[in-house]
Amino acid sequence: MSENKNIPAAVEAVLFAVGGAVSYADLKDALQIEDKELKDVLQEMQTRYDAEDRGIRMIELDGKYQLCTKNDYYDELVRLVNAPKKHVLTDVLLETLSIVAYKQPVTRQEIEKIRGVSCSHAVNRLVEYNLVQEVGRLDAPGHPILFGTTDDFLRSFGISSMDDLPVITPDRLEDFRRQAEEEAGVINVET
Description:
Radius of gyration: 21 Å
Largest sheet: 3 strands, antiparallel
Order of helices and strands: HEHHEEHHEHHEEHH
Structural class: alpha+beta
Mean pLDDT: 86
Shape: elongated
Low-confidence stretches: none
Distance between the termini: 72 Å
Strand content: 5-15%
Helix content: 40-55%
Number of strands: 6
Strand order of the largest sheet: 1-3-2
């Protein structure tokens, strides 16, 4: 990058023009600058966008960067483009999405084994909402589709990578099991 260019402005131009998330490596290649300089610029830009009274922000999604609208201005955007409100995730969709998030890559059959019921509708709806996507095929008879989460999943739940998901400890898992049994009306008699 020539020395007379404003690096933050160049980053902003690239992210704006692409529209979607751009990997760190692609940004570095496009700008032709050193790692430390790019890391410093990205951190400074994120801090500035968060601190200033602006309608956009820069987010990091699993090592990729993107400019997006601040959530505070969602209603104004909806009125402008007459788009529907955000999708409502039912308990069934949240349960299915949780399984995909924690077990990915995962097949429909594996999800159904965990849930104990058919999940075709839930998986199709999550794909439609762009929270889940096909990430490959299992090397097994029939080559079933493997599903994983998307950048929209990260963005929707306000996390920058899958490492930010809460860890489910054995104690919490036992609490979840107990709650599920209570909701299902199963009585667990301890001896």
